[in-house]
Design a protein that fits this description.
Number of strands of chain B: 0
Helix content of chain B: over 70%
Strand content of chain B: under 5%
Number of helices of chain B: 11
Number of domains of chain A: 1
Order of helices and strands of chain B: HHHHHHHHHHH
Shape of chain A: extended
Largest interface: A-B, 70 and 96 residues
Number of helices of chain A: 5
Radius of gyration of chain B: 20 Å
Order of helices and strands of chain A: HHHHH
Number of strands of chain A: 0
Strand content of chain A: under 5%
Number of domains of chain B: 2
Largest sheet of chain A: none
Distance between the termini of chain B: 40 Å
Largest sheet of chain B: none
Oligomer: heterodimer
Distance between the termini of chain A: 36 Å
């Protein structure tokens, strides 16, 4: 396996995806509906990452009260909803996860 | 100093504000970087290549997938193609930021593009939503990016070291730190029904389509969530014509 090729290839595709629209910014104008649509991007993309990682932490769907990833995620959702503070959410979520994992013996 | 806008901060103040706003996100990203470091050598990536990958590519999820693919003997071109698909969500982020960078010279745009991550996007987006002016906002971005970048590279080092001491570390469940950080980032957005619907659709589809190759499910879920949210938003605006809406 050629590590130099791997890293330069990954750099090329990662950077070009991140840069292409910045490069043409100012030359193209987005229609109103597209700007509205883009407001949904952050929570929607993050949720598409979160949902599988907490509901299928071992690769298969695991919707159960014995799944510490899912339960701790719910604790984090409630904490974030009540406190609106990121650091509190992270700390409470991680403590809940550690406790549940230990308690459930997973 | 400013005559046009009441809130124009000096570049240094913006830089520090950007780095500070990113500190909670660093806590979420750190375990992820450490686990990447611990997993590198067992999966067939040399320590030097692992550090270089964090320095040059700087894309958490892609780096993890690359390790997973390396472990099962995937060829380099396939790994690069998978990275491309996985990072396609950054097109959505950068599209969101286009109006915020169009006044900047291209070297600034290139630096910002390199530093575009889920975390920096979220921190910077909050800054843009709270303070309207753009004058020195790119310094805020740079502060956030360099905080993430330093953290990521440092954590890769720590992971490589710890991985040699505790070979079982990747089974400790530290990856949950990223999920919980992202949850804390998502909840503040859920202020209206279209946004909540969009997020629910995205979550459900991401799970259902998880088995699709090259993580295409991530894009399918995102686009579906956005489509549902946008449709609901337009429907609600149509029912309440009092709110002025420029429909096309």
């Amino acid at each position: 396996m050629n590590e130099t090729l791997l890293i330069s290839g990954m750099f090329a595709v990662t950077f070009s995806v991140r840069y292409v629209l910045f490069a043409v910014a100012g030359k193209v104008n987005f229609p109103t509906w597209l700007n509205k649509a883009l407001e949904f991007v952050p929570p929607v993309v993050l949720m598409a990452i979160i949902a599988p990682s907490v509901s299928m932490p071992k690769g298969e769907l695991w919707l159960s009260y014995t799944n510490p990833w899912l339960l701790a995620a719910l604790v984090a959702v409630i904490t974030a909803w009540v406190r609106k503070d990121l650091l509190t959410t992270i700390v409470v979520g991680m403590l809940a996860f550690a406790g549940l994992r230990f308690g459930l013996g997973v | 100093m400013s005559t046009r806008s009441p809130v124009v901060l000096q570049p240094s103040r913006e830089f520090i504000a950007g780095a500070s706003a990113t500190i909670p996100l660093l806590i979420g990203a750190a375990p992820f970087g450490i686990i990447f470091g611990t997993l590198a050598e067992p999966n067939g990536l040399s320590a030097l290549a692992a550090v270089l990958m964090s320095v040059v590519v700087f894309a958490g999820a892609s780096q993890f997938i690359a390790l997973g693919l390396l472990a099962v003997g995937t060829s380099v071109p396939i790994i690069i193609a998978t990275t491309f698909v996985l990072n396609f969500r950054h097109i959505l982020y950068s599209a969101n930021l286009v109006s915020k960078v169009k006044h900047l010279p291209h070297y600034w745009r290139a630096i910002m593009a390199f530093g575009l991550t889920d975390e920096t996007f979220a921190a910077v987006n909050n800054r843009y939503l709270q303070l309207g002016n753009l004058k020195n906002a790119h310094w805020f971005y740079l502060g956030s990016f360099l905080a993430m970048y330093t953290n990521w590279i440092t954590c890769t080092f720590i992971g490589l070291t710890l991985g040699n001491i505790f070979p079982e570390m990747h089974n400790w469940g530290l990856d949950f730190a990223m999920s919980v950080t992202f949850i804390g980032m998502v909840i503040p957005y859920l202020k209206n029904r279209p946004m909540i619907a969009a997020v629910i659709v995205s979550a459900a589809l991401a799970v259902v389509s998880y088995e699709l190759p090259h993580k295409l499910g991530l894009l399918l879920a995102s686009f579906s969530g956005i489509a549902v949210g946008l449709s609901l938003m337009m429907l609600e605006n149509r029912r309440r014509p009092a709110i002025k809406e420029s429909t096309s």
